[in-house]
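PROTEIN–LIGAND DATA SHEET

This sheet pairs a single protein chain with one bound small molecule, flavin mononucleotide, given as SMILES. Inputs appear in the order they were entered. The predicted three-dimensional arrangement of chain and ligand is reported afterwards as a token string under its own label.
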Amino acid sequence: MPRIVLLNGSPSTRSSTEALLIHVADDLRMHGYNTTLMNLRSLPAEALLLARTDQPQLAAALTEVQAADALVVGTPVYQASYSGLLKTFCDVLPVGVLRGVPVLPLLTGGSDGHILALDHGLKPLLSTLGATSIAAGRFINSAHISAGAGVISPGAAAEVSGATAGFLTELDRHLTAPVRVPVG
Ligand SMILES: Cc1cc2nc3c(=O)[nH]c(=O)nc-3n(C[C@H](O)[C@H](O)[C@H](O)COP(=O)(O)O)c2cc1C
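PREDICTION REPORTED AS:
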């Protein structure tokens, strides 16, 4: 069964982004996909910052991402962009790792004024990792998420399920695409 890895780039233990990703993971499992939620805050900080990719926990995380059929990348908006935690992890991923891998970008933030962090921050980051199939994604204001209770508002749930539907359409197309055999 195809596996989707969901990355949470928040350093917070009571994370709105994590609550949102858990909601998305539940939805993806209902559509028949395996899911793995990876909280990047659980990775050893020194290995991440010093790019020690042979550190066992970090190596295992990198292998898991490389083996994924698709990714959901969630991050809080920090200073009008993605979190530093997400960036440190992306910095140790191999070049071109997301080529041909459908990706759904999701942001949570406190100010709707920073909605452009999706198109001007997170999507370009994913593109530099080789992503060619980036779903529309969403910015969800954290006022619509109760991190402690793990509840998101009906409006936010509708928003994010619209994004998930587009992502799954692309993933299905990707998984059923005929393998091209080079001629000659
Ligand atoms: C250090 C820091 C910087 C932040 N910067 C912004 C910002 O520039 N724009 C914004 O909309 N929200 C900003 N926020 C609010 C968070 O993006 C928002 O609360 C988010 O949902 C937190 O997600 P989390 O609970 O998963 O960490 C910031 C929060 C922190 C702690």
